[in-house]
Design a protein that fits this description.
The complex is a heterodimer.
Chain A (H helix, E strand, L loop, with lengths): L1 E5 L2 E3 L5 E2 L6 E2 L5 E3 L1 H17 L2 E7 L5 H10 L3 E5 L9 H15 L4 E5 L10 H9 L3 E11 L3 E8 L2 E8 L2 E5 L11 H9 L4 E2 L19 E6 L8 E3 L3 H14 L8
Chain B lengths: L3 E2 L9 H5 L5 E4 L2 E4 L8 H5 L5 E2 L10 H4 L3 E4 L10 H16 L3 E7 L5 H7 L4 E6 L8 H15 L3 E5 L2 H13 L4 E5 L1 E5 L4 E8 L4 E6 L6 E5 L16 E4 L11 E7 L1 H4 L7 E5 L8 H11 L3 E4 L1 H5 L20 E5 L5 H4 L7 E6 L6 H4 L2 E4 L2 H15 L4
Parallel strand pairs in B: 5-6, 5-8, 6-7, 7-14, 8-13, 9-13, 16-17, 16-18, 18-19, 19-20
Antiparallel strand pairs in B: 1-4, 2-3, 10-11, 11-12
Classes of the chains: A alpha/beta, B alpha/beta.
The structure holds flavin-adenine dinucleotide.
């Protein structure tokens, strides 16, 4: 089975701190990491390869330094990597992003399965996976949390829903996005890390993907950010200090007075 | 590509560096410089006191769709004949937007055997209901649902299309937006109309909630957004309200490639966090799994459900279904009580929309206090029992 995994480099938001005064980001020294959900995608792909055989190609779109996530993927044991990089990609929304990723997957030829993480932690949109599927005319199942059957021409997966889960059969080729329940990522192997050091990462720019400047990046995007601002935490603030019997009672009284808590029930 | 910095005007004050969410600006000598990380978001342009920064205008394809599109549509998601609460919230919001645009509200309902549901949508504010009732739509399959929705959009050209940011919506709607070749903004928490340009101003948290962004879709139509559940107010219900019912039929070729073999309801596993009016959340400050007993007691006394931080979940004190935050559930209850929760940004994004936030923490500098309406500095093992006692007294049970 030929599997493509789409991964993204994101800032490590765990270490992003808010400046309490200005409510802006303090990002000094924040490292870039593989989007945490994409590690589950890599793990899922590795498990599928173990069962069905075949090869895995990890694809990322990003600035030149995004090659670090391809190296990491090689370390985990994927077979090949591909970096999509071009200054014209800057400012891409999900529409322009899926344009590039779909072309890259097409260019690999004969991909049976595309695996994406459920969403990226910087944008949080969860839109790229389904968008790629539509562009490639493939069926998709999003938020996959487990596998029931893995065969060369079909998958049976568990799809997480708000009220439980569905068991869904999908013929291949197809696309899935995965959530953490598919399994914790294994540690990178020593052999993989050695290979990653020497691995020369293939790279493609917009022209090599057969895309024109107007189809990628900000110019190829439908949406446009018009304003960025710090979240406001509205409402009055009260700080209660003192003996616990007192503060505990005070807060309940205030909530009752404001009809947040109804006593009558 | 990056923002344009006018060296004549730039004084090297560095304010743009602080405003940039992407670390795309650096000081070089006496000037600000832009690097490859620039996403052209424009935060720096707003922050610059000298007006030295401009966002380059890019040529976008204009296809005249904006001029022809009309109407606000809402996707009336249903599973097994049950509509999630968010559909009522979308219709409430849709009515408000439609009034400003002076257009009708359409609701799109897909499924099989949905008798009576159209009437419910009229009562909730729809003027028109597009109903596709077909055995092939009985179960949710992205591809066939997408085909039907994209066809309806092409035929009727709504200018706005809203759906809930539920699991189903977040899987299906990106596919529909791609099929309709238009923009989509995920997980919005605020929607407004720019009346001059008839643009939908879509506001959402980005970067794990560290910043808010307002996004528009200037040319393509419809302007599509998924909306976070429990953030918008539901509209009023008007029993007996009438509307137009448009029956939509499928073509013989329409079929789903995927097939749902089984639907497993697992509400207890999922915990109804999203729908709860009161959420009491425990963090690592609880010290161990037994700490959740206190959380449960308080939740029960308030008729609420139990939430948890990732810290508590990773320590295996409670199941992941309880997790609130970026990698858990988003909640916006009337009352949110956080016990022993530090308030990491990934947690805050999942709860900062709550109407009333109470935090108990023994560290006066814990970031949770930045968002708390009532911040109690103290030991949760003393404060929470005092809250329980007070409740009992007031209810005449003490
Ligand atoms: C990609 C990513 C996604 C994440 N997603 C989420 C998410 O969805 N949800 C989430 O919650 N986290 C998430 N996190 C983790 C997050 O960064 C924090 O690590 C986590 O929220 C901390 O949990 P906590 O507040 O329980 O623990 P801590 O940060 O350890 O805080 C415990 C608090 O309890 C207080 N305390 C201790 N004893 C007492 C006492 N006796 N009385 C009163 N107060 C006491 C302490 O002062 C402290 O403030 C994510 C992280 C990453 C990297």
């Amino acid at each position: 089975m030929k599997i493509a995994v789409c991964i993204k480099q994101v800032p490590d938001t765990a270490n992003v701190k808010l400046d309490p005064e200005t409510h802006t980001l303090k990002r000094e020294g924040v490292e870039s990491i593989v989007n945490p959900f994409d590690l589950f995608a890599l793990e899922a792909a590795l498990r599928i390869r173990e069962q069905a055989g075949g090869e895995i190609v990890a694809i990322t779109m990003g600035p030149p330094q995004a090659e670090a996530v391809i190296k990491e993927a090689i370390g985990y044991g994927v077979d090949e990597g591909l970096l999509l990089s071009d200054r014209a990609f800057a400012g891409a929304d999900t529409w322009a992003t899926t344009a590039a990723l779909a072309k890259a997957i097409e260019g690999l030829g004969g991909v049976d399965l595309v695996v994406c993480g459920k969403q990226a932690v910087d944008g949080d949109t969860a839109q790229v996976g389904p968008g790629i599927a539509q562009r490639l005319g493939l069926p998709h199942v999003a938020f996959v949390k487990g596998f029931r059957e893995i065969e060369n021409r079909r998958l049976v997966v568990e799809r997480q829903m708000d009220d439980g889960f569905d068991v869904v059969e999908m013929p291949l080729p197809g696309l899935i996005t995965v959530v953490r329940e598919v399994g914790e990522p294994r540690p990178p192997s020593l052999k993989g890390k050695m290979r990653a050091k020497k691995y020369a990462i293939p790279m493609k720019d917009a022209a090599q993907l057969g895309l024109e400047a107007g189809q990628v990046g900000l110019a190829g995007s439908f949406t446009q950010v018009v304003k960025v601002f710090a979240p406001s935490h509205g409402g009055e603030r009260h700080r209660l200090e003192g003996p616990p019997e007192q503060t505990g009672a005070q807060v309940i009284d205030a909530l009752v007075d404001n009809q947040v808590i109804m006593l009558g029930s | 590509m990056g923002v344009i910095i006018d060296k004549e005007l730039c004084t090297g004050c560095g304010q743009c560096l602080d405003s940039c969410p992407f670390e795309a600006l650096e000081l070089e000598g006496d000037f600000a410089q832009v690097n490859d990380s620039c996403t052209l978001c424009g935060a720096c342009a707003e922050a610059c006191p000298e007006e030295a920064i401009t966002v380059p205008e890019v040529e976008r394809a204009q296809d005249g769709r904006a001029a022809q599109a009309k109407g606000v549509w809402v996707f009336a998601e249903q599973r097994g004949g049950q509509m999630p609460e968010v559909v009522a919230e979308l219709l409430g919001q849709g009515r408000r937007l439609a009034r400003e645009l002076d257009v009708e509200v359409g609701a799109v309902l897909l499924g099989h055997g949905l008798d009576g549901m159209a009437g419910e949508l009229f009562a909730l504010g729809a003027d028109v209901v597009y109903l596709a009732d077909d055995p092939r739509l009985a179960e949710f399959n992205d591809d066939i649902y997408c085909t039907v929705l994209a066809r309806l959009i092409a035929e009727h050209r709504p200018e706005v299309f809203l759906a809930g940011a539920t699991s189903l919506g977040r899987s299906l709607i990106p596919r529909v937006a791609t099929a309709a070749a238009t923009g989509l903004t995920a997980d919005c928490t605020g929607l407004a109309i720019d009346p001059d340009k008839r643009l939908l101003l879509q506001t959402r948290p980005a970067f794990g909630g560290n910043i808010m962004a307002t996004i528009i879709c200037p040319d393509a139509r419809p302007q599509m957004a998924t909306v976070r559940p429990r953030v918008m107010k539901r509209g009023g219900r008007q029993d007996g309200r009438q509307g137009r019912l448009v029956a939509v039929s499928l073509t013989p070729e329409d079929r789903a490639a995927t097939q749902v073999l089984e639907v497993v309801q697992a509400l207890d596993e999922q915990v109804n966090l999203t729908g709860a009016e009161v959420v009491v959340t425990g963090g690592r400050g609880l010290g161990g799994p037994e700490g959740f007993d206190l959380v449960r007691q308080l939740a029960t006394a308030l008729g609420g459900v139990v939430g948890a931080t990732r810290g508590a979940v990773d320590s295996e004190w409670i199941g992941h279904a309880h997790q609130v935050g970026q990698t858990g559930r988003t909640v916006a209850p009337k009352l949110y009580i956080a016990l022993g929760v530090s308030g990491a940004v990934q947690h805050l994004v999942g709860m900062q929309g709550s109407d009333n936030i109470v935090a108990v923490n023994n560290d006066p500098n814990a970031p949770i206090f930045d968002v708390a309406h009532y911040g109690i500095v103290g030991d949760l093992f003393e404060v929470a029992p005092a809250m329980l006692n007070r409740l009992k007294t007031l209810r005449g049970q003490g």
